[in-house]
Fold each of these.
Amino acid sequence: MEIELKARVSNFSPIERNLKKLGARYIGVKRQIDTYFLPIGQPYKKYRGRVLRIRYDALSGQARLELHVPKNAYAAQEYEVAISNYRTARTILEKMKFRPEFVIDKRRRVYRKGQLEIVLDTVKRLGKFIEVELEGTDTQKNRKRITDFMLKLGVKRKDFIIGIHYNRMMLKVLKKKYAYF
């Protein structure tokens, strides 16, 4: 299970300085292009909150089919499988009556500190964000661990975004009520 906390930021420089001070290891850069799919003619309420997408890493050329099932505002169960051909996977989904709804295009700078993954995201049409993620059991202890680390990085609690992911933010930008199932 993935537990994460996101925050909107205006400048990555102070966060990167704090990451270095705290001993976080720089992993590298990713450019992820996420295409979100919606089932045609399916009632939204039945699957509300679930996300089906193809994530393509433009730098590595790798792609995955992903289904995210939210457990609460902090955690989601993720099901992922590598795919060798993005276009074929997209065609399969379309033939199964899923339509591409929108794309999230982001550039990620990835850091690691112990079990925590820290990503600095620049997301087209949405802005700059930091995410701190942890794979594990969704407990108050793990939520506190993520929150405390975010605060150590200098991120203000008022900038935390809890329970709202990029797909929901994009819906607002596109003025759409639902685009996930």
Amino acid sequence: MVNSNKNGHTGFTLIELLVASLILAMLITAIGAVLAAGIRTWQTARDHLRLEAGGLPGLAVWERDLMNAEPFYAGSDTWTSGDRLPLHGSSDEIIIPATVVASANYDGFVPGYVRYWFDPRERAILRETWLFDELPPERAEIWIENVDSLTISYLDPDDLAASTPRQATGAGKESWDNEVELPAAVVLTLKLSASGAPEQTWRRTVVLPRAIRQRGIADY
């Protein structure tokens, strides 16, 4: 309501001003809450994408190393006879026999090892490679960061569904120490988290083609 005083001036009453101020304050609060929620959602999505961008490429290389696993024979003078290079693994570490980049003493790729393991102090998966006739390096490369835990399991042929080899039907083994055969598949389960992002669980069942072909489970 607009009132007129005895001098002819018009204006709002005190109650009207208070009501208008209250409505304005409520609008500002609502707009601020919407903006804050939008910013939090954007930050969560950004952290989520950053977590994936930092980890998925490394996980893809890990899967490739597993798929290229090859139980070489390596001796002092030849790679076709001598001691076998087996795959060894536990629930938080795996050593894969594979071709690795040669050192200055060799040309191209040669048999060697690729090792992945979880370091809880670094909250990271570490990776290192070395040739079959050398010792492991003193320092490893941080491969996947923001990792809270790692669980590795190893599947025999009986742990895979006959019709769909990539789908595990059993829990698998917590370790692998078979000196002769490769596991039919390896299951990697990683839990990751970063500031502002919800925890993520990545699970990959990686079939080892060499083992699958040798055992006649499926055509690869």
Amino acid sequence: MDPVHSVDECRIISLFSNTRTTEGSGFIVPGDADATTRMVGMQWQLGLRPELMMPWNVYPWIEPDGEPGKLTPANITEGLKPLLRLLAIVPRTSVLVAHGNEAHRLADQLMKAAPQSIHRRGFKTFKVRSLGGRSFAGSPTRQQEYLDLIHGAYAEAMARTGLTRSPRTRPTQLTRICCRYDAS
């Protein structure tokens, strides 16, 4: 885990559909460079400091020589036990934002299998799009709509956990701050 995130201060878990790659830093990221830029831009805009959230992958292992792509249902189910262990060590966390279909499936499994200690927190999940790849294709107007929905989910997650939003910029300015569009 990147040392900028804090087990003690974490309020929100960002659950990503795993890219299953062995390249890069080894840290959990929201996807490609554009996805990372969108996530960091949204965090900056909301004033969501990194120590208040924890990134996590649906399938938290790197498979050497594994084919990137969709996770199998078995992979998603295998990710439940580590996610429950994570939730046990981040007691102040009461929200999970699931990015992408695989993350949505694991979030559903989590809510069915979660122990009472999780439910007593008033735990809530938000299901949003992945921040990159095909799920973020479309016109600039459509991409802005996707960003606004994700932005709204994180804003509500912050409100549920008692975190206040930063008045840095309006949500509609997110595109100009953090996203590049391919005009072709």
